[in-house]
Amino acid sequence: MKYCFLFLVFPLFCHAQDKAIQAEVDSIIAQGKYPGIVFSVAYPNGEATSFTAGWADVESGTPMTPGNRLLSGSTGKTFVAAVLMQLIEENKLQLEDRASKWLGDEEWYSRLPNSEELTIMNLLRHQSGMERYEFKPEFSEEVLKNPDRVWKPAELIAYVLDDAPLFSAGEGFAYSDTNYILLGMIIEEIEGEEYYTVLKDRLLKPLDLTGILPTNTRKIEKLAQGYMDKESPLGFNDHLLEDGISRYNLQFEWTGGGLAFETRDYARWLKLLFEGNAFDMEKMGETYFQDIPSPEIGGSYGMGYQKLVIPEVGEAYGHSGFFPGYYTIGVYLPEYSIAVAMQVNTTEMAKLRSFFRDFVKLTRIVISNQ
């Protein structure tokens, strides 16, 4: 039954399953859990479908649609890691290489925690011992002061210089966007181009992921309004957009996330990635699938992906993401050759308490007859 879209004998079943998913999505919104929701499925044959309910903008009464984009937060790390896997496949770097090979000549590099020991693998798996630059109070103050400021990567890194390391490189786990900012800088050093250009040329264009855009501007096409608590991380509050333009800077996130999704393209991406369409998985799989326990965020963490075991679903590979006003999760289910993704346009903590449970319930409906 995995290939229901391929055979005419199964259309009624597929239609019934779609109705069950849509009914659950409608029920979630009817319970007042989120302003809006998008749940997407990439099926075994590559077809992708989105189910929506609620509002892209509550105040204007604009309904959420599959064409709306939502900020994706840390899920962008899956793309950074895939670019690096391509570069490894092309013998342009190795996991064991020191970051200093590309960044060591920067005047600030020696001031990084564990600067001499940092490797590509340390950065990919959050084993550098560096803190998160974005939650430093001084950084939040600067973001709020000038939402039009275009941040250079070195200006972001500056917030962790001279910090004491959380642990020796490679001997612990501490989730930190700082790691991926450094990886973005290394990618640009190797490729001689801006990261977003590399991403477009290597992944987004070849894989036809047209629903994914960089968040390097305050205006993102078809971005749903994001709702948040009065006091949110980074000092943001209440809502993100005014007249379709972000009240706050979006550009700083960069390779720590830095993307906006049509949700179905995130589901498509995860299926393409884990089925070997981003790089040669037969050749690179042993390099890629090296995950370690990550108790801070749950499950285990590998080269830019999270590995989870979901009750009554099974093993899952993907990534979740947070940006004030938006929450995202997506996973690939190898047992079923299916990927699922869910986004909501709120990070109000009282409304996110059932987020993972809702995601799991919808995922169980998807696989119930596979």
From TrEMBL:
Keywords: Signal. Residues 25-349 form the Beta-lactamase-related domain. Residues 1-16 form the signal peptide. It comes from the Bacteria. PANTHER family: D-ALANYL-D-ALANINE CARBOXYPEPTIDASE, D-ALANYL-D-ALANINE-CARBOXYPEPTIDASE/ENDOPEPTIDASE AMPH. This is Beta-lactamase family protein. It comes from Fulvivirga sedimenti. The lineage of its organism: Bacteria, Pseudomonadati, Bacteroidota, Cytophagia, Cytophagales.
